[in-house]
Amino acid sequence: MKGMTIIVKKITQIIAGPIFLYGLYIVAQGHLSPGGGFAAGSFIAGAFILLVLAYGDKLRHLKTEEFESSLIETLGILFFIITALGALLLSIRLGFIPVFFKNFLTKGIPGNLFSAGIIPLLNIAVGMEVGGALFTIFLEFVIRSSKEGK
Amino acid sequence: METLLIILLLLMIAGAIYALEAKDLLSAVVSFGIVGFGLVICFLLLQAPDLAIVQVVVEVLVLVIMIAVIINTTREEIKEKIPRSTYIYYILGFIFVVGFIYLFAVSIQGLSEFGKHSTRMATEYIKNGAVKTGSMNLVSGVVLDFRGYDTLGEITILFTAVVGILTILRLKGRKHE
Questions:
Q1: How far apart are CA B63 and CA B80, in angstroms?
Q2: What is the pLDDT of residue B177?
Q3: CB-based contact (8 Å) between B59 and chain A?
Q4: Contacts of A95 (CB under 8 A, 6+ apart)
Q5: Has residue A1 been placed in a domain?
Q6: Is B74 helix (H, G, I), strand (E, B) or coil?
Q7: Is it the case that residue A148 has pLDDT exceeding 90?
Q8: Largest CA distance in chain B
């Protein structure tokens, strides 16, 4: 896939970082303000997809690197399941009723950043999963089309 | 507000019909964007900012990817001759539309009014959700605490989709033909 003109490349260079940071902000504030893991993952994947679309497949030797986004996605779903299982096991130790997805951490004051128990952790896991999955699918098509073009 | 919603929905229907009939594929994609962004405005009018954020991001991504695909391939729609001399397609379509409208009119009789709901679980979640989960954003609390299994299923579907695509499109281990 070819890259685009110098104007698109320059604007992408400026704007991709703030989009990525806004995704991180949404995933961190997912239990306080509208948003959450799905929106944040889409933002993060969108920043990278913008970079690949603007610069073409010459960006960081894309033909060989397809491993990291898939790894992030797998770690995300693993983190989600481990948190839920850990809630089941730890709630036996702590004396709660053992339930899958038990919110065993302290709730804190609603409205603070560190509150709501395990919900922020699960939000981060969902964000990793969604961002990694969307970017992996996109990258796989780009690599495939550039291989077939030759 | 209902009038505004009806106008938006009619605009979205018109955009979808034009996307089907357009000769140029680029203009079809752009008019398909009317559907997505109209849906964003509908969500904002109905006070659902979570859905609006997700919808606007996904819509922008889909439009950008579709336009990139069109730039890299072709703008012409491939025309295939469909024999339209028989009127049986029109008659079948008319029967389907009439039957669909009849079933729709029957099935909305039992619904509650616009803007009101009569579900007991939802009322319980809205009343006690913030206290029980400790999360200020009620949607996040419901999705990740009360309905944790649903989210687990959703991300499992996403994971399975990625594994399937990686398997079909893989380059390593493929026999050279």
A1: 26
A2: 53
A3: no
A4: none
A5: no
A6: coil
A7: no
A8: 65
Domain count, chain A: 1
Parent domain of A60: 6-148
Tell me whether residue A100 is in a domain: yes
* CB-based contact, B155 to chain A, within 8 Å: yes
Q: Compute the nearest-CA separation of A30 from chain B (Å).
A: 7
Is A81 in Cβ contact with B137 (below 8 Å)?
Answer: no
Residues above pLDDT 70, as percent of chain B: 92
Predicted confidence (pLDDT) per residue in B91-136, tens digit: 888 999 999 999 999 988 888 777 777 777 878 888 887 777 777 8
> What are the pLDDT digits (tens) for B13-51?
999 998 888 888 888 888 988 998 999 999 998 888 888
Q: Tokens 């803007």 sit at which residue?
A: B115
Nearest to B78 by CA among B25, B126, B38, B118: B25
Residues of B in contact with A135 (CB under 8 A): none
Cβ neighbourhood burial of B154 (10 Å; 0-12, 13-18, 19+): middle
C-alpha–C-alpha distance, residues A79 and A29, integer Å: 19
Inter-chain residue contact A129 with B155, CB threshold 8 Å: yes
